[in-house]
Amino acid sequence: MFKQTVQNLLTGAVICETAFADEYLFLQAQSNQDRVTEFLSNLDRKLTYLESADAYYCTFNEVDSNNSAELTALFSDIRGMFRPLVEFLELILTASQTDLPVHSKSIVNINELFDHFEHDQTLRDQLRHLTGIKPFKTNKLESRDQLVFVFQKLEDLGYFVRKNAGSSRYFATARFDLVYLLIEFLNDSERIELPEAIEQQQDELLF
C-alpha cells in the first residue's frame, strides 16, 4: 500500500476517503505518514493535508529553478480547467437551488437534476454553453445527454466517483475542495471574478 499511495500522490491524486479509501486509511496511521513524508522529501516534495476536506496531496517543498518549468505547466493545465469548473459549479448551485457548493462527500443525484433542466430554458442555455467549451465540449444536443456527458467527464477527471457504474448518485471528491483553495490563491493574486455564491462559501470550505 505504501508504493501505491506514493505513486498516486506523485501523479497528482488527491487522496480522500471517497476517492481512495484504501490509501486514505493507510495515511491515517502516523507511522505511514512519516514513511511517505520521508520518501517524498528525497524528491523535494512533501505530504500536504487539506483539513477542510480531510484529504492528502503532494506539493513541492519550494519553488526554484529545478521545478519552475514543471509548476508552470501544472498551473497552465489547472487554469485551463478553472473557468469550465466554475461554470459547472455555478450551474449546479442554480439547478439544485442550494447555497452550498459541491465539496468533498457531497452527493449529487443526476436524475434529480434532469427535471430542473427540462423546465428551465435558462439552465438549458447555460448547459449548452458549458458543453461548447473544453473539457466538456460535445456534439450532443439533448440536455439530458449533455448533463450525463459532463458528469462522466468529471468522473474521469477524478472529481466524482460512483459506487456502482450504472448509479445516478455521484459522490464528490476532495479535488473540488482543492480547486476552491487554488481559486482563492489565483483570485488573491490576479483578482479573477468568481460567482458570488461560490465566493461567499470559500471561507467555510477552506478553513
Tally of helical segments:
9
Total DSSP E strands: 5
Write down the overall mean pLDDT: 84
Share of helical residues: 55-70%
Instruction: Quickly give the structural class.
Output: mainly alpha
Give the uncertain stretches in residue-range form. 191-195, 197-207
The number of domains is 2
* Distance linking N and C termini: 30 Å
Radius of gyration: 18 Å
Overall shape: elongated
- Order of SSEs, N→C? HHHEEHEHHHEEHH
Strand arrangement in the largest pleated sheet:
3-5-4
Q: How much β-strand is present in the residues?
A: 5-15%
What does the main sheet amount to? 3 strands, antiparallel
Key words describing this protein structure:
single chain, about 210 residues, mainly alpha, Arc Repressor Mutant, subunit A, two-stranded antiparallel sheet, elongated
Could you give a short description of this structure?
With 207 residues, the protein is mainly α. The chain has helices at residues 2-10, 21-27, 30-41, 68-96, 110-118, 121-130, 143-156, 175-190, 196-206, and strands at 45-50, 55-60, 107-109, 160-161, 169-172. The protein starts with a helix and ends with a helix.
